[in-house]
Amino acid sequence: MASGRFKKILIANRGEIAVRVISACKELGIETVAVYSEADRYSSHVRFADQAICIGPAKSARSYLDIPSIISAAEIANVDAIHPGYGFLSENAGFAEVCETSGLAFIGPKPDVIRLMGVKEQARAFMRDMGVPVLPGSTGVLQSPEEALEVAGQIGYPVILKASAGGGGRGMRVVREAADLAPLFVQAQQEAGAAFSSADVYLEKFIAVPRHIEFQVLADEFGSVEILGERECSIQRRHQKLVEEAPSPAMNDALRAEIAGVLQKALAAARYTNAGTVEFLMDEDGKLYFIEVNARVQVEHPVTELVTGIDIVKSQIRIAQGERLRSILRGPVTLRGHAIECRINAENPETFAPSPGRITGFHVPGSIGVRVDTWAYTDCVIPPYYDSLVAKLVVHGSDRAEAIRRMRRALDMFIIEGIHTSIPLHKRILDHPDFQEGRLDTNFISRLLAPPAKAETLA
Amino acid sequence: MASGRFKKILIANRGEIAVRVISACKELGIETVAVYSEADRYSSHVRFADQAICIGPAKSARSYLDIPSIISAAEIANVDAIHPGYGFLSENAGFAEVCETSGLAFIGPKPDVIRLMGVKEQARAFMRDMGVPVLPGSTGVLQSPEEALEVAGQIGYPVILKASAGGGGRGMRVVREAADLAPLFVQAQQEAGAAFSSADVYLEKFIAVPRHIEFQVLADEFGSVEILGERECSIQRRHQKLVEEAPSPAMNDALRAEIAGVLQKALAAARYTNAGTVEFLMDEDGKLYFIEVNARVQVEHPVTELVTGIDIVKSQIRIAQGERLRSILRGPVTLRGHAIECRINAENPETFAPSPGRITGFHVPGSIGVRVDTWAYTDCVIPPYYDSLVAKLVVHGSDRAEAIRRMRRALDMFIIEGIHTSIPLHKRILDHPDFQEGRLDTNFISRLLAPPAKAETLA
Amino acid sequence: MTVDEIRELIKLAMETGIAELEVQRGEDRVRIRGSGAVAREFVAAPQSAQQLFVPAAAAGPPAAAPAQPVKEKTDGAADPSLVLVKAPIVGTFYESPSPGAPPFVRVGERVQPGKVLCIIESMKLMNEIEAEVAGIVESKLVLSGQPVEYGEALFGIRAV
Amino acid sequence: MTVDEIRELIKLAMETGIAELEVQRGEDRVRIRGSGAVAREFVAAPQSAQQLFVPAAAAGPPAAAPAQPVKEKTDGAADPSLVLVKAPIVGTFYESPSPGAPPFVRVGERVQPGKVLCIIESMKLMNEIEAEVAGIVESKLVLSGQPVEYGEALFGIRAV
Lengths: 459, 459, 160, 160
Known about the structure:
The complex is a heterotetramer, with two copies of chain A and two copies of chain C.
Chain A: E1 8-11, H1 15-28, E2 31-37, H2 44-48, E3 51-56, H3 67-77, E4 81-83, H4 93-101, E5 105-106, H5 111-118, H6 120-129, H7 145-155, E6 159-163, E7 173-175, H8 178-196, E8 201-205, E9 211-219, E10 225-237, E11 240-246, H9 253-269, E12 274-282, E13 288-294, H10 301-308, H11 312-320, H12 325-329, E14 338-345, E15 357-358, E16 361-363, E17 370-374, E18 381-382, E19 389-397, H13 400-412, E20 415-417, H14 423-431, H15 433-436, H16 444-449
Parallel strand pairs in A: 1-2, 1-4, 2-3, 4-5
Antiparallel strand pairs in A: 6-7, 6-8, 9-10, 9-12, 10-11, 11-14, 12-13, 14-19, 15-18, 16-20, 17-19
Helix pairs in contact in A: 4-5, 7-8, 13-14
Chain C: H1 3-16, E1 20-25, E2 28-35, E3 37-43, E4 70-73, E5 82-86, E6 91-94, E7 110-111, E8 116-122, E9 125-130, E10 135-140, E11 147-148, E12 153-159
C-alpha cells in the first residue's frame, strides 16, 4: 500500500507540525484532512486543511492518542495515508501496524523498525554491532541493583541510568558513586514504569559536559540512505531543547563524513525508511557516542532544511509514495550558510510555568532570512492541554555570526502579547558570550539560570 | 564622510522598506531613527526603530518628500547616514547633495551619478557608448514632431515616445504608423511636462511582446562592480510590477555572463557606487536592450537575495561605510534555486480601486521557503495617502516548479481581512498555464484581464 | 443541506440554548453559536474553515470572501427538556441495523433509556448508541450512511 | 521627564479635550489619548514604541513588558479657550534669541498675535514661531535646547 501517488492525507497531529505537513501537502497537490480535539476547534490546522474532523475531547488520550478515533476519521474521509507528525502516535509501532492493516500508508518507518529503535538498549546494541560508536554501558536491560553495580564498576563512575522505553529525561538518574547506585536504580525503575509502562532500565557512562549532536536521515524504500548533515541541540533545559542549529560549531568535515558513512551502512542494514534522527553525545574531546534514534520528523528539522535546501516533510511523503531518494534529492547534499532555531514557548521565562491563554497581539518577524513555523495568530487561545510550543523562529545566515545577529533582531521584532513567552530567555541565550563563541554543552542553561553565588535565605 | 562605521542611521522612508532597512541596521548593530508623517504614527517602522520623529502631516510633499524636515530630523537625532529606501527622495540628486553638505552619508550612488541616470536619454547614450545594447532610437531629446517623424522613419514602426525624466508609464505613447505620430508627440510632451516638470521626450523602437528583465548591481567605492544575476518582472499592469522572479526563465548562462561583463565595465566607467538595477527589455528573439538604471534599492530585491544568499540592504550600508565589495561578498556570486515575489496590494483585485482601511485580521504564511516583508499587522490602518503595497510575499524553492507551488500555497495561507487585496489576482496569475510554463511578457496581465471575446452590451 | 434543514438546526440551537452546534454532512458544514448572538456559518468544502479565525460575533468585512457569517439575534434561552444525543465516537452513522431494514427510531417516537437509536461504525465495528433519557424523538440530525465526527449532534429528544 | 511634568501634561490634555497629545523630550516620550479614556505611556528609549501596536483603550497584559500604559478615566471635556501652539517644523527649540538672553515669553505673560514665542532651528536656519491668538501663556512644554518633532505642543495659551 505504500506506493502510488497519494490523493489525500490525514494529519494525526495538531499545532505547528500539523500546519507544516499541510503546507507540504499543498505544495504536492495532495488534499489534507485535519483531526482535532474540542480544544483545538479554532486552531490553524483546522482552518488550513481541506477537511477537518473532530475526534474527541481535549484530553490527548481520548483524541490525538486515540487510535480507533483517528483510524475511523481516516476511513470516513477516505484518505490514502496518515502523517503522524512528532510526539503523540508518531513512534507508536502499534499505530503504524493498524494503519497498514487498515490499508493506509503510515508516513514513517516500518513498524518493526520503529519497535527496534523504540527499545533503546536494543537500538544501542544494534548500532554497536554495526560499528557506530556507543557509550560504554550495560549490554541490555539490568535485572538487579547488583548487576548494575557490577557493570558500573567496570565502566567507572559517573554513570547514568536510563529507561529503555524512555525519553524526555524521565527515568534517568546520574550516579556519581557506588553507594548511591542501588536507591537510584529503584527510583529510575519506578519512574520508568510510571511513565512508559515498562520499568526496564539500562546504564551507560555519564559525560559531565556533553554536547548534543544529531544527524538527520532520509531513507527510501529501495535501500538508499542519505545523511543531511548534523544539528547541534545542546541548549536544553531538563532535556527539552530550546535552541538548535546547523551545522554544529563543534563539527568538522572529516568527522561529519565519517559518521555519515557509518550511519548509512547501519541504517541500510536496519532497513530504515523515511525520515529519522540519530542522536549522539559529544564528549569533551570531540568524540561522538550514539544515544538513540528518533524514528520520525523532529521539531528542529527546519534548521537542516535551511542549510541543505531540502524539504524534509515533502521528502517523507514522497518516500512513502514509493519514490526514490535519487529523484527526490536530485544531486549530492550540500550545506550552505548557518541556521538557528528558537522554540518560542508559552511559558514564564523565569519560572518556566506554562502560560496558556489568549494571545491578544501576535506579530511575527519577517524580512531576509527569517522563517516562522506556527499555528498561532492574533486572538487565538493557547490551550492548557498540550505542549507549550507557540512558534518556531528559524533564521538562516551566510555564517554563524550573521545567523546569531539575525536571530537577535528577529527576537526583537517578534511580538506576542497576552501570555508569557520564552522570548526574553532566548534573548539572554543569544547574548551570552559562550553561545556567541559556540561554547555549548547541555549544562549551558543550568549555568545561565543559576542564582547568584550567594543566594539569600528568605526569613 | 562616506567612510567609517555608522553608529546611527535615519531611514527617510515608510512602510515595508523602512522595516527592511531597520532589520538590516539591527543586524549590523547600528541604531535607527524612523521619520513618520502624522498618518503613520502607528506604523511598524515607528515601533521597531530605536527613535522616531514626526516630520509632518500625511501629505508626502510636506513629510516624506520634505528635504528640510528630514535633514532637520537627522540633525536633532545626530545620525551618521540616511537610507532613502525606494521612491520618495531615493533618486533625488539634490537630496543626496544636501546630505553631503550637511555632513551626512547618503546611502546610495553619488549625486552626479544619480543625475546622469535620472535623465534617461543621457543614460541611454552613455550606456550605448560603453557597448551596452540599446534600442534603436533618437540620439537625444526630440525638438519637434518633424524630427520625430524622420527618426521614426529610419527605425521603422511601431515606435514608442517616452519622457526623458519619466517613469511609471506617464509621458509614454506607442505610435503604430506615421500619421499618428504628430498628435501623439504633442500628447506625450504635455503629459511629461505635467508629470515631471520637463516636457522633453525621446523615441525608440517599440517591442510589441517584450519581457522586462533587470540586473541587480552592487558597486563599492573602490571601483569594484558585481552583478547579482537578473530578475524577470514581466508581470506588470500599467507599468506597475505585480510578480517578480529570479532567475528569469528566458535567461541562459552565456547571455547572463555576457551582459554582466558589459555592465561591470560600463558601471565602473560611470563611477557607479552602492546598489542599483539596470533594466532591459528582451525582444521575441531573446535579445536584450537597455532601458534605464534605477539608482536605488528596488522593491523586488528580495528575490535576488533569496537566490544569491546576499543581503543587499546590508551590503548598501557597508558599501556606504567604505567597505570593499570583496570583504562584503566573500566569494563569487552563485545562484541557488528559484525565487518569486508577489506584491500584495490593498486594492480591489478586479477593479484595482485602492482599498485603504483597517486590517481586521492579518495572518502571514510561514513554514519552509516563505519570506514576508511587511509593515502591516492585525488592527493596523492602511492610510490612503501612499502606495498600496501591504506586503511582499516571497518564496524560494529548489526550482521554478517548486517555487510556483510554494507561492500558491502561501497565497492560500495568507489571511488579510477588512480590506480588499490583490491576493485573488495573484492566485489567478500563478494558476495560468502561461505563467507556469514561463511564457511571460509585459502584456500578460492585459490578456488575463481582457473581458471574454464577445462582451454583451448592457441594456 | 437545504435551507429548511439549516433553519431547523438553528431553531434547535435556539431552543436548547447550547453554546455552539456544528453539523457536518459530507462537504457541507453548518456551525451555529448561541452566546448572546447566534452566528451561522455555511460554507462549501474548500472554504470550510474560512471563518474560523474570526470570532463569529466580531466577524470583520472580509473583502472578497465567498461567504460571510449571517448573524441573528436570539435570547439564547436554555431548554432543559430537550436533550441532544451526540456522537461519542468518530464513524459512519446508520439509522437501521442493516440496509433496507426499518430505522431504529423515527421522529415522533417515544423512547426509553437503553433504547438503541442508531449505529456508528468505527473501524469495522458496529457501535450501538442508546438513549439515556425517556422522551420523544423530536429531530434526527444526520442522514443514514453519513460520516459523523466526535460530539456531533445526532438526535434531539424531548424528555417527558 | 518627572512625574509632575507628566501630571501637568495629562491635566493639559484633559483640559483641552484633544484626542491625543504626544510629547517627546530627548529619549522620553509621553502619549496621552483622550477619547473616553486617557492612556498615558511613558517608556524609556529602547522601548519607546513598545506599546504602539496596542490600541490604548484595549491594551493587553503584556507578559514581561517593562512598562505598561496607565489608564485614567476622564470626561475629556473640550476647553476651547486653551490654545496649543505646535511646532510647524522639526528642529531644535530655543526659548530665547541667544544663549543667556531672557526668554521671548514667560509663563503668566500676556501675548498678542504676532508676538514671537520661541525659535526653532532647522538646517541652520532660525525660524521664529509667533503667537496666533491673544492670551496668557499658561504653560511652556519644552525645555530650551531640546529637539522637537512636527506637531509637538510647545505652549498652552489661554485665550482672553
